[in-house]
Write a structure and sequence with these properties.
Number of helices: 0
Radius of gyration: 22 Å
Shape: elongated
Order of helices and strands: EEEEE
Strand content: over 45%
Helix content: under 10%
CATH topology of one domain: OB fold (Dihydrolipoamide Acetyltransferase, E2P)
Number of strands: 5
Largest sheet: 5 strands, mixed, barrel
CATH architecture of one domain: Beta Barrel
Length: about 100
């Protein structure tokens, strides 16, 4: 059983989370190290998990076409995002002559 640690990218679906697992790869010729991220769909049986939380997942038998990992535990809880601020509507302003600006 493979155990991985990653952060929650999406939690829109009821029982599915999208987890980003980051790992380091070395270029074979130039030996430069760079980061790669795998996006994995995970079965969520623990309940509500916030976006940005650090979680531990474990491989299981395939649950569906794209899900073969299960949520094991939440390592670090992320604060929920702030609600979006309402954007004010633009209104046309009259200039000094009293006519509307275009």
């Amino acid at each position: 059983m493979q155990t991985l640690t990653g952060s929650v990218l999406k939690n829109k679906n009821a029982k599915t989370l999208l987890i980003g697992v980051t790992y380091v790869v070395t270029h074979p010729l130039y030996h430069k190290q760079f980061k790669r991220t795998s996006r994995l769909q995970v079965q969520n049986d623990l309940g509500e998990v916030a976006v940005g939380s650090l979680v531990k997942i474990v491989s299981t038998r395939p649950v569906s076409k794209n899900k073969s990992f299960k949520l094991l535990e939440v390592v670090q809880v992320s604060k929920p995002e702030k609600e979006p601020v309402e954007v004010m509507k633009k209104t046309k302003v009259k200039n000094k002559t009293g006519t509307k600006k275009k």
